[in-house]
Design a protein that fits this description.
Elements (H helix, E strand, L loop, with lengths): L3 H14 L3 E4 L6 H11 L5 H9 L3 E5 L1 E5 L2 H20 L15 E7 L8 E5 L4 E4 L16 H21 L2
Antiparallel strand pairs: 1-2, 2-3, 3-4, 4-5, 5-6
Helix pairs in contact: 1-5
Length: 173
């Protein structure tokens, strides 16, 4: 059976054949670099995400739209931006509840789409929920929407979505 990691590599090859520019970090991250970020966060990043960081560092895809699968530096910067927006939403009177408005507190941004990158719309690993949560620009989401899957599956699902959109856009050119 093909793993989600292998399927992700196949989708990246297909995206490149469609003309997408695929960028990765020249050298993956070291375990010490990962540990330093984890220490600053106060929690451990998921094992499969750590594997991604070591192998790819990060992935950027560019063709009409952009998709970012973050490494440590950009993920940390996005986490700071998202946190600020979530704090503003909470300060405006929205309160987190088990079912209803939920704003991640202990999280790390792992991916987003360039079209929405400045509006806190992307995938975060939420340590409190032990899963990946898609945020929507500071609008509340439900904690129950967290996906308790491995990072390789999340990557595969998002790459597949990008591939399908690029294919669809190519049909209209």
């Amino acid at each position: 059976m093909t793993s989600f990691r292998e399927k992700s590599l196949q989708i990246l090859e297909q995206l490149a054949k469609l003309g997408a520019e695929i960028n990765t970090r020249e050298v993956g991250y070291t375990p010490d670099e990962i540990a330093a970020v984890e220490a600053s966060l106060g929690f451990s990043l998921p094992q499969e995400y750590q594997e991604f960081l070591v192998e790819f560092g990060q992935i950027g895809i560019d063709l009409d739209s952009t998709w970012f699968f973050y490494g440590l530096e950009n993920g940390s910067a996005k986490t700071t931006r998202y946190r600020s927006l979530f704090e503003d939403m909470i300060a405006s009177g929205m309160e987190s509840q088990p079912e209803g408005p939920y704003f991640p507190q202990r999280f790390f941004v792992v991916a987003d789409e360039g079209d929405y990158a400045n509006r806190a719309t992307g995938w975060v690993y939420d340590d409190d929920l032990g899963g990946f949560l898609h945020t929507f620009g500071g609008k509340w989401v439900e904690a129950s929407h967290a996906r308790k899957i491995g990072y390789w599956q999340l990557l595969y699902d998002e790459l597949t979505s990008a591939y399908e959109r690029i294919q669809e856009e190519a049909e209209y050119r």
